[in-house]
Specification:
single chain; Hypothetical protein af1432; about 60% helix; mainly alpha
Length: about 190
């Protein structure tokens, strides 16, 4: 029985994202998953407090933490490649599933039932929220790159804004209207 699951998770810090893009500052998988978890939690809180939903906010955060765990083994597949055509997308889904199975095999049998739904994104109610948090994290990265003078992310930023604006989640619209503008500010302006 392998017990390498947690040591493998801690390798997220070695996985860089946005491989096809020139970055002013590299972003690791660890940073992205933490940001996605924070954003998923925030979206769930907004949904509960303002939109009459009853999401489990803690569960949303935990799902955000694990949503890209497979990338420890697969790396970050660039979006233009991943979604180039249906056969590549389908093949990559199979690769993600195999990576998640490999991660689960690193756990003792009694812990697998707790982690399998986190890695396999089996929560249908929260899945759209986690997807939105993932896209918001990517959008924030694009904003940060543009603020640093890097126009390489301009097209990605435009695309992500469009994707997010079409999501049927009021909590996303609220976050983008109320909280996203602060990501344009400097530290002095935030104070």
């Amino acid at each position: 029985m392998s017990k390498n699951f947690f040591s493998m998770l801690f390798r997220m810090k070695y996985i860089d994202r946005w491989a096809l893009m020139r970055n002013s500052r590299a972003e690791t998988l660890t940073e992205h998953t933490l940001e996605t978890a924070v954003l998923a939690h925030a979206l769930a809180v907004i949904a509960n407090e303002r939109c009459g939903k009853a999401y489990n906010v803690d569960r949303a955060a935990v799902l955000g933490m694990f949503h890209d765990a497979h990338e420890i083994l697969t790396g970050d597949m660039p979006t233009p490649v991943k979604y180039q055509n249906p056969s590549i997308e389908s093949a990559f889904k199979g690769v993600e599933e195999a990576a998640n199975d490999q991660l689960l095999s690193m756990l003792p049998d009694d812990l697998k039932p707790t982690y399998a739904p986190l890695l396999r994104e089996e929560d249908n109610e929260l899945r759209p929220l986690i997807k939105a948090a993932d896209k918001l994290s990517a959008l924030i990265k694009c904003i940060e790159e543009r603020k640093a003078g890097n126009m390489e992310f301009q097209s990605a930023e435009k695309s992500l804004r469009e994707i997010l604006s079409k999501m049927p989640l009021d909590e996303v619209k609220i976050f983008m209207e109320e909280f996203l503008p602060a990501f344009e500010l400097t530290l002095d302006e935030m104070r």
